[in-house]
Design a protein that fits this description.
By secondary structure, the chain is mainly α. Helix content is 52%, strand content 6%.
Length: 297
């Protein structure tokens, strides 16, 4: 089968049958297109284990992202795995359609080290949230991130019809799964004040508007990333702060204060508890108490 036709059918399958988001479909398209261009494939049967191995070497030796103007030693293992996951999923699709190609099991993912979890300390959080006190919209954004642990895309998708008489609302997240998130009184008050100040009738909860009824649109993910970065700098926090760091801060705050990991898993919308367990090494109070009690006696 022609490789481009196979890819188009695969991406349609990922979107329709698998129910993945358009962003996931776009990412798979990117990873596969790069692999196909590298291998100069015309047909699905042209893919071989040797070509996959050569592509892995190519990725491993590719320059990494630039930091302070200098390229890192190589592409991160986790990024390399994104390519391999896309290729493996494509090969599984081919097998399902009885199209001859490499066995999906031939692809093993690279071992990766434990993830570093960036999060804000209690003092940093206090300064960060206070830094937006003179901007109703931005304060509502920051308070909502910390109250709910929402992903960036989830927050961007919210509309102004939120029922603020309740302390919770449902959100459709990754993998089209619905979960409940919870609003603190502070977050609810911040959203109410912001909405009260709005003069437009635009549908998005967070709009890019000067309160002009004819010129308002949904804030983009990039705009919200810039807002978060701006207030981190304003608060004197010079490490990298992103919406995902706020999500990490939400999780570590809950676990540090005694929440059980299963509950945190559900609030974050993690399909697998192993994803949530990455937070425990920075929040395990019991280990800290054992060290204090027994070390150096």
């Amino acid at each position: 089968m022609d490789i481009q036709i196979a890819k188009r059918q695969f991406l349609e399958y990922v979107e329709i049958e698998r129910g993945r988001s358009l962003l996931t479909v776009k990412n798979y398209d990117h990873y596969l297109s790069k692999f196909f261009a590298f291998g100069k494939f015309n047909n699905a049967s042209d893919i071989t284990e040797e070509k996959i191995r050569e592509f892995r070497l190519f990725l491993n030796r590719a320059p990494g992202q630039k930091v302070r103007g200098q390229s890192a030693a190589g592409m991160k293992k986790v990024t390399q795995n994104y390519y391999m996951i896309a290729i493996r999923s494509f090969l599984k699709f081919l097998r399902k359609r009885n199209i001859a190609s490499v066995a999906p099991d031939a692809i093993e993912l690279a071992k990766t080290g434990a993830r570093d979890i960036d999060h804000l300390s209690g003092d940093e959080l206090k300064r960060f949230l206070h830094s937006a006190s003179d901007n109703l919209r931005d304060r509502a954004i920051l308070e909502l991130f910390f109250s709910t642990g929402l992903r960036l895309s989830e927050l961007c998708s919210l509309n102004r019809d939120l029922d603020l008489s309740k302390d919770e609302f449902s959100i459709r997240g990754k993998g089209d799964k619905v979960r409940v998130v919870f609003l603190s009184d502070t977050a609810k008050d911040a959203i109410k004040e912001y909405l009260k100040s709005r003069k437009d009738m635009a549908e998005p909860l967070f709009a890019n508007t000067s309160f002009n009824t004819t010129n308002s649109s949904r804030l983009t993910p990039r705009s919200i990333q810039r807002i978060v970065k701006f207030y981190a700098t304003k608060a004197g926090i010079y490490k990298k702060v992103t919406p995902h760091v706020l999500r990490h801060s939400f999780a570590t705050d809950l676990l540090s204060n005694g929440a059980d990991i299963r509950s945190v898993q559900m609030m974050l919308g993690h399909a697998n508890i192993s994803t949530t367990q990455i937070y425990t090494h920075v929040t395990d109070k019991q280990l800290r108490e054992v060290h204090k009690k027994f070390h150096g006696k």
